[in-house]
Please model this.
Amino acid sequence: MGARTDSMTVKPVNNPLIALDVMGGDAGLPDVMAAAEVASERYPALRFRLHGPEARIRAEFVRCPRLSASAVVVHTDDVVLGTDRPSQALRRSRTSSMGMAIQAVKDGEAHAAVSAGNTGALMAMALFALRTMPGIDRPALAALLPTLKNDVAVLDLGANTECDAENLVQFAVMGAAFARTVLGLETPRVGLLNIGEEELKGTDELRDAATLLRGARLPMRFEGFVEGDKIGQGDIDVIVTDGFSGNIALKTAEGTAKLVNGLLRHAFRSTWLTRIGYFFSRSALQALRTHLDPNAHNGAVFLGLNGLVVKSHGSANVRGIANAIGVAHDLIIGRVGDRIADDLANFRAHRPDVLAETGK
Amino acid sequence: MGARTDSMTVKPVNNPLIALDVMGGDAGLPDVMAAAEVASERYPALRFRLHGPEARIRAEFVRCPRLSASAVVVHTDDVVLGTDRPSQALRRSRTSSMGMAIQAVKDGEAHAAVSAGNTGALMAMALFALRTMPGIDRPALAALLPTLKNDVAVLDLGANTECDAENLVQFAVMGAAFARTVLGLETPRVGLLNIGEEELKGTDELRDAATLLRGARLPMRFEGFVEGDKIGQGDIDVIVTDGFSGNIALKTAEGTAKLVNGLLRHAFRSTWLTRIGYFFSRSALQALRTHLDPNAHNGAVFLGLNGLVVKSHGSANVRGIANAIGVAHDLIIGRVGDRIADDLANFRAHRPDVLAETGK
Model:
């Protein structure tokens, strides 16, 4: 096996290095490693630290020749379970595969950690180990969703149930940097999720955040308030919201897509005519399914920490996990952390004093 | 014309009487009246008060023979516009077609008001004229949404951006009464929309509301917290949430259905093979569209007021408006107000003292 167990030094960004928790998620170690192999083929410069049981990892290297040549193995048998509470998981920050992957980012031994494990545990460990960046009060969970046009970045998807105006502005800055990095946009269009487009709609927090963003000098185009039905239209690149509404929107969109898919399947089975129709339409329906496949959009990132942590969905398959590793790769190469730091510094230097005037 | 302009006395519920704002919404007076004609055919006992310009209403009676025989006309030329602010509309509570329809409910001259006009104006006027029922702090906007199985009732859909635990409990009581009336269920399954199913998830308000509902004696089965992806599954009959999240969920579901529909149309146009497929599949796709058609679920009701007010969607067609009138009919016949009052009294008599113990 070509894998080295000695530590590799992290160089700027030419050789992106990902600390991978091979034990997280439903897929299991072989699929996580197969996904890393796919990512290694896609990004030849990518290197890995694999955190998990060494013997099983080494046995799997037979099927992952590229990975075995570009990975170090860091042994541990301790695994954070899906049922573990964040507080239980935190105690195993130094021993579990998930905790060690995050620790590697903290210690400068990897550029990003990727795990498909317990989201609550990952959030707690990442926040505890990496802490928030200067100027960021709370990290946010961001991901891409499919639309009629290009993907849209949505945040926060569930890290913070309640947010104030400052949090929302910070999310907008982070989301724009994310979209510039991952979607390759120069000045992404940013909208605040609300229950109406008029300036008077919604909560005080939303109105204050809109006032701040309207007056800010940032590499984005602030489009004001957007409603939930605009998420899928593709005319906004970044949707900013608190973690409660963001999670509700994400899950509702998933559920509705599933509903339509279920109805469609039922409809095509209803008569012999529609069965013939299905036969001819298979390629179209397959394209639809591929477009909406959560695996094609897998990889949510915790933005706002001193280090990158990417969460792969627990139910993601090999393709999905490879996609999440790809997101981590793009964020490393695109130096998303530096972009956020620069934009925050710029925002503060030219901070609109609109809220100060009203005594806030 | 057979219509009488004299006032009819409201009798209990044998002859349900609806005050209809013929001027609200995008459809226009002819479509609103055509919808009332459809509803009159469907419910022969139904009678109407038509609020709007008398000459135009009378001219339209030619095409609405049943309606003309079961309606009184109450003339007004004053119309609340979609662009009017609630505060502007309130000043025309006595003169506008919308305001007069609500006033008729207040004065006991109709059992319910139906309008497709400006939602904000309708909410403000209805709350101002009818006030909340004893035991209800805030009214909620409720409607039915399609699922894989039976429809689900969701509330609040946007009347209250922020809600406390008491509000949510009252919404649950009202939503259950709504589901029993409109869906014909004896003990509807009620869930609180949250970002996870575990008891510790979400806000204090949600956890307190769950505690109260778990201990309450009500004609419902409380199923705890449900996530957004469960809305479309059909395993819960009533989804309770604050107006902000409810509106986000509703609009996101609408947007996602539109997204899938758009992708589907695009997919079927992609090759000659899929075009053939479309030809054979038309009936299946039509059935899908009918199942998801917002017009088939049109008619949101303001629950918790001393009188019934039903809001038809501004963009509803004749079928949609007829459906909203049908919702009003069912709520009158089912005496939803009495059910809510009974359930509230019962809840208060056996109110769980769980929150009192924690000093709340």
Remarks:
- Chain B touches chain A through 59 residues (CB under 8 Å).
- Chain B has two domains: 1-130, 133-298+335-360.
- The mean pLDDT of chain B is 90.
- Residues 1-130 of chain B form a domain with the Isopropylmalate Dehydrogenase fold (CATH 3.40.718.10).
